[in-house]
Amino acid sequence: MRWTSLTLAAIACSACVTFLGCGAFSSTPAGDAGVEGGAFADGGSLVDGAAQSDGVAPCRTFCDDFERAANDVLGPWDRMDSTAGSLELVGDPAGPGTVLAVTNKPPLNGGSSKVALYKALPAAPKRRLSFSFRVFVKGAPTPGKQLQLFYVDLPGTPKTSRVSLELKDGELRIAERTGDGPYDYPGSLGAGQLVGAGWHAIDGSVRRAGASWEAALRVDSVGGSQLALSIDSPASANIALGDHATSEAQGTMLYDDVRVDVE
Fold first, then answer.
1. Which of these, 255, 244, 245, 252, lies nearest to 118 by C-alpha position?
2. pLDDT tens-digit map of 96-112
3. 80 is in which domain, residue-wise?
4. Which of 77, 118, 217, 248 lies at a C-alpha separation of 20 to 30 Å from 132?
């Protein structure tokens, strides 16, 4: 379980680079069920409402603290993939409780590893989709190789936008992907470092900014990054936790206290 509260991402700079090495890009729309969430206020808490006794934000649209039987890895998620790797529930190395371990191994005969949990959310965001989780770098990714930690897919117009959190050589980046091609990365931005032993707190959001949308991200409640997105009107929303498409990378990441809120 997570022991500290999270706050909203702050505005920073933007940059544009191209990332390679991801597998097929696809999204499965989930219908708009009209989920209503708590009100947000810029500068306030990530998820509106009082924190629970352990400091974790209340569960709104979706959450998972992985406190369940070891053989029930899937839990509240829709599906899981362990191509060239494994998903396990293990003990927290820093204290009591159970966490998710995602281990990547180099795929055989080329191809991509896909080691992740997936969830179609019950509604598309009208104002904001916020997320938070904790991550522990148990086995650092192969030097020079990239692992994905989390994504938000927003199928819509004029195209589907995937907001992906990507780790390479200790640097966590937030990037947008809009297709399969090597140039379908309209933007990418450094968000912080995941270095040293111990848990790191990740919190961010995908939110409306006038007629367009933007993504924001913070690491350990320090600094902030904000990235303009290509999408105008999301029709649904999906998330993935873990490495959803990486070539020839290996490493072990631990996850805990996932929280997602759709407004």
1. 244
2. 999 999 998 876 666 67
3. 62-262
4. 248
